[in-house]
Amino acid sequence: MNSSAAPTSFPLYATKRPKLALIAEGGGQRGIFTAGVLDAWLEAGYDPFDMFIGTSAGSQNLTSFLARQKGYAKRLIRGLSRHKRFFQLGRGLMGKHIVDLDWYFEKTKEANRILDFKAAKESLGNRELLITATNSRDRKPYFLSPKGSGNQWRELLKASSALPFLYKQGVKLTTEYNAVSVSENKTNSLPQAQPESDYYLDGGLGAPLPVREAYERGARKIVVIRTGDVNFQAQSAWLHKLKSLVCATGHCPKTINYLVQHEQAYQQELAFIANPPADVEIIQIFAGTKLHSKLLGSADSDLRHDYKVGVEAGRDYLFEHGELNLPIGDTSFDTSNDDLTRDIIPNSAHIQHSATQFEKQRLSA
């Protein structure tokens, strides 16, 4: 697994415009909003990106987008992530995984749920895909690129989604050579080393919103699909109060430290987005109101709602950027089936249900 950047050669006009990155945030089942955005783009044949960075559920969404499997992420979130086998609090009392990622990803090998890594690799081409994961030993975020088989890619996705406590110690990965963490100096030559294994956890713990990483890798236009609303700040007064009470005993559970780390990392990224360098444009795609779904345990009706909001957000983005020739509000997608279809509905209904918001930081002097 290699975190070094690869030369970009797709699309052909890449050298005539700023390097364009797409970032997909995590958020568990709230990732169904991202699935909707990306399905709308697949429907329109829209993929101008040079770089992709996915965190947790975002890395799964980006993989199915690259595989050109429209509707795939939605089916897995509505189906597998709501299955009683996937999430059981009682398993934690028996020392087992509360969230059974092993079962979940084994299901992606079945004929009717196959995740087409071959197609994803072909459509990725010479572009760059980075999957974030947090090393449990040094607690730093790493940006890992799938270089081997579909099984290796699948293990990266699992590691990026492995929340501490819910999935025990994490996923054991063996790097082909040293990956460079975000906190280390990046040079053109990586230190050579023998393959080594470590346990990796959810990428959102160390890099929940890796906008700075995209910028440092040369992206000068960055599109971020968010699963939090525009006012989400990741600040939890109760978390710091809990830490002060629990850790006063001299024993501070790793889970609390990870949550505090996630909050701090999120705040740093939000500060970067609020005051970006002069040579970068950052476009954020939000749901205009808080999504109905949760990290886990969402009702199917809430997931269906948030997917539809995501589809509308994706189409609004295309219209905003001249990639769609129909007025906003003229079309929507019928989400009653797994296959995406389109129905005409009145503008007023679209406005009522869409509530899509774009926040932009343009080039500034």
UniProtKB/TrEMBL annotation:
Keywords for this protein: Hydrolase, Lipid degradation, Lipid metabolism
InterPro entries: Acyl_Trfase/lysoPLipase (IPR016035), DUF6363 (IPR045943), NTE (IPR050301), PNPLA_dom (IPR002641), YjjU-like (IPR037483)
Domain PNPLA: 22-215
Motif (GXSXG): 54-58
Position of sequence motif GXGXXG: 26-31
BP terms from Gene Ontology: lipid catabolic process
Motif (DGA/G): 202-204
Molecular function via GO: hydrolase activity
Cited Pfam families: DUF6363, Patatin
Keyword Aminoacyl-tRNA synthetase: no
Active site residues per record: S56 (nucleophile), D202 (proton acceptor)
Domain of life assignment: Bacteria
Record-given protein name: Patatin
Species of origin: Alteromonas naphthalenivorans
